[in-house]
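Translate sequence into structure tokens.
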Amino acid sequence: MNFKKLLVDFAAVFAVSLFVSVFVSALWNLVVHGAATLDWETSFRLAILFGIIVPWMESRRGREK
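Result follows.
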């Protein structure tokens, strides 16, 4: 897997996981606390972790085949 593909995969996974985690945190805060506040700090951390781990695991899976 070349660097460009790895970077594109990181960006795609980062964007999707950031959107989903922001949506879930807003929905959770709306249901539990009654106010739709966003937890950006945790959402960015989760998106960065998924953005690194998921493409890395996919590249490792591709090398094994």
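Note: The chain has one domain: 3-64.
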